[in-house]
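Materials and Methods. Structural model of Riboflavin synthase. The 221-residue sequence of Riboflavin synthase from Candidatus Thiodiazotropha endoloripes was retrieved and submitted for structure prediction as follows.
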Amino acid sequence: MFTGIIQAIGHVQSLESRGGDLRLTIDSGNLELDDVALGDSIATNGICLTVIDLTGQGFKADVSRETINLTTLHKLKAGSPVNLEKALTLNTRLGGHLVSGHVDGVGEIVSRSDDARSIRFSVAAPKELAKYIAHKGSICVDGVSLTVNGINGSQFELNLVPHTLQETIMDGYQAGTQVNLEVDLIARYLERLMMGEAAAEMNTAGVTEALLMERGFIKGR
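The predicted structure was written out as tokens:
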């Protein structure tokens, strides 16, 4: 688990093909690794990766096909900057929100504009994630815990203050930049819970209008 508060900006040293998947080597920059052991987790652009080796300058991690297919990791190359956060501990300040490091989908920056000293981004999310994104709710973008400031269909607005721009890789985002998205954990589990016993059935349609009516959440027309 993570908080979405970035601790350092690292850089990709190499991506090595390994039997159809990848081995990733990260230069961790200013991230303190003295308390990191093999098997620990480090969020890299919001992706929970397991440390398999400590190199002195950073760490190595194996990346599965599943992760490659569902994230922006395959777009990284040697030298690419990445947001880094070590897994939280029980005495960590929860400055952001609870983040699992399990990416739900890839979004795309639609626009970027100045807003006083802040930068406002408009982000297009996959349509299937729109139902989990709420105005003034939390969303994790490339590992950064952010507040949704506006929403229009599957597009949402973010307002980044100067500190966030300085401490993350987001100052480099332009229209067309693809980003890893993780929706709020509570929204995902709430959907599953609302399905009740139907969740155990194969090929269920998820939370539908008919199901909400059956459970009494909405009234029939």
